[in-house]
Please model this.
Amino acid sequence: MKKALQQIIKTVQYNCHIADARHAGDYTLCVYLLKMREMFRWEHGIDFKTTLTTDAVGDWLTAREGVWDDLEEQEYQSLQIDSESYEPFDNDLINTFLDKEKLVYNAGLGLRCRPHFFIAELDETIEHDEYTVFISGKEYARDMAAPPAMAQGTHIFIRRESLRRVIWEILDDAFVAGLDNPLTRAMSFYDFDLNPEVALNQMAEAEIEYVIQHEIGEVKAGQTLGESWNRMTAELASIKVRTQAEIMLRAVRDHFADSISTLPLLLKNRNKASIHFYFGNMTAMRKYLAPSLVSAYEYWHETKDFSQLDKYLANAQLHWNRLAVDINKHYKDSNDASLIEDLIKDRTL
Model:
């Protein structure tokens, strides 16, 4: 690889380390250790079949936390490209250069306004209606969270490697638990016993279209909700006293986004494995806010009858849209996180 590209990758990874140093404490201990275990696997090129030893991961983790101690107060570095300096969030300008090298870069903000950075091989670019979808493969720099998808404007970034990792983490926990649940049901459609790597690739490829649809739904939901929703989410994420308000807002937006595009495609395709995976990947907050959706899934699982899922979808988009509009209005009038929580709790579906 060219020396100039190596320096860009080094800078991106440096920024990833700063983000990790500042935000590692956002996770519970269990989630933190899981993410760091998989970060160790990625850095050392270890496949998913290989069991990691506690000593090796522990020594690496201690060293990494020592690196973070020196970086937490540092500023994110600009990327130096062709004698020009680019701020780390100048995605379009940076990608104009990297596209010629068949690479893709993205910097964005996630939960609690946590910065995410990555640079990877660009596998393909897809024009999807009015959206441009960048699907990446091998990753050269990433942070510990490494979200598998992110939408920015009409650009959608899908990370194959991170998607495979996230799916593996989810399924590994489900497999260890050994219970009958949506995830183990999804796994049963693939040969994870004999060839887990092939099965993982097959599942990841099957789910990419639904990930794209969720991100398209996110963009469309954002267009409806407006910038005031983003400001509200950022303000609630920054308050020192932790509340459930930000998590609730994200769950409402996720439900709204999925009612626009993801669920319609799932129910149109009638893909059993993907339906099981969708519900297995649903967060506790999303389940709490949509009990009828959870019940409809269980009814479908028991009877193979889609009628309850179809009934939920018929009402979902209007419900989540109206709720989001009312949340925006109430927050504008009161700036009170507790009132937002109460409003959402009273408007489950």
